[in-house]
């Protein structure tokens, strides 16, 4: 690896604003805001609108909208 060409990869806390869910991971993103984490250290805080705690696919609240019977037509066409 070449030296001094890669961005700084450091611990960051991501906080989901809609569900008040937060997790600590590593990222190249930075922020002026900081938060004190469970381990007593302060980390940059990145606020996000949606995460796995609030996304409909992961929470099981996703709805499949079948307009015009497309799924049924596909199954009928390719049924064996």
TrEMBL record:
Pfam families: Ribosomal_L31
GO MF, one annotated term: structural constituent of ribosome
Stored Gene3D superfamilies: Ribosomal protein L31
GO BP, one annotated term: translation
Keyword hit for Zinc-finger: no
Subunit structure: Part of the 50S ribosomal subunit.
UniProt cross-references to HAMAP family, sorted A to Z: Ribosomal_bL31_2
Protein name: Large ribosomal subunit protein bL31B
The species this protein was found in: Arenimonas fontis
Taxon lineage: Bacteria, Pseudomonadati, Pseudomonadota, Gammaproteobacteria, Lysobacterales
Gene: rpmE2
């Amino acid at each position: 690896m070449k030296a001094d060409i890669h961005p700084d990869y450091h611990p960051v806390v991501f906080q989901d604003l809609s569900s008040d869910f937060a997790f600590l991971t590593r990222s190249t993103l930075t922020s002026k805001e900081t938060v004190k984490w469970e381990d007593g250290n302060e980390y940059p805080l990145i606020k996000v609108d949606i995460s796995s705690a609030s996304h409909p696919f992961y929470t099981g609240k996703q709805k499949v909208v079948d307009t015009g019977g497309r799924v049924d037509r596909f199954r009928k066409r390719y049924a064996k």
